[in-house]
Amino acid sequence: MNTLSYKTKSANSETVNKEWLLVDAEGETLGRLASKVAKLIRGKHKVNYTPHVDCGDNVVVINAEKVVLSGNKWTDKSYIRHTGYPGGQRELSAEKMLEKHPHRLVEFAVKGMLPKNKLGSALFRNLHVYVGGEHKQEAQKPKKVELDSIK
């Protein structure tokens, strides 16, 4: 009698089925949008999810400039960077970030929800954020995804 008649199947880079998904960020709250997009990029919505493998989908986000922040976050939320020189800490509010680089709001939010290792860097390359309704991934024929359908 064979007691181990079953095998756990893990996804690997050869068996993974990657798709292209299109997400419209218009009217979406930034954090909620980012958590759902991170889940799609990571592949947690798939049956064959494997934590150590890039089994997620490629996600295209359009209308990045139309995201919503609640409360006083437009003025209070700050993005801090450092130039590398003494006294080189620079701070930018979310409002100024929206004026200068609106796509970075979504990119920073999603990147913060991905793993902080080599896998997270590889997963981040599967995110494509665009300002406006047009994008460069027409040839891949991305499927439109409603964020309300994702838990």
Plain-language structure description:
The chain has one domain (20-136): Ribosomal Protein L13p, Chain: A, CATH 3.90.1180.10. It has 151 residues and is an alpha/beta fold. Helix content is 27%, strand content 17%. Strand 1 (20-24), helix 1 (30-42) and strand 2 (58-62) form a beta-alpha-beta unit.
Q: In sequence order, what are the helices and strands, one letter per element?
A: EHEHEEHHHEE
Rounded average pLDDT: 94
The main β sheet shows up as: 4 strands, parallel
What CATH architecture label applies? Alpha-Beta Complex
Number of helices: 5
**Distance between the terminal alpha carbons, to the nearest Å?**
42 Å
- Determine the CATH topology: Ribosomal Protein L13p, Chain: A
- Share of residues in helices: 25-40%
- CATH superfamily, please? Ribosomal protein L13
Nearest-angstrom radius of gyration?
Answer: 18 Å
CATH C-level category:
Alpha Beta
- Structural class per helix/strand content? alpha/beta
Tell me the strand order in the biggest sheet: 5-2-1-6
Summary keywords:
6 strands; four-stranded parallel beta sheet; alpha/beta; globular; two-stranded antiparallel sheet; 151 residues; 27% helix; Ribosomal Protein L13p, Chain: A; 17% strand; single chain
List the helices and strands and how they pair.
Blueprint (H helix, E strand, L loop, with lengths): L19 E5 L5 H13 L15 E5 L10 H4 L1 E5 L6 E5 H7 L1 H10 L6 H7 L2 E3 L13 E2 L7
Parallel strand pairs: 1-2, 1-6, 2-5
Antiparallel strand pairs: 3-4
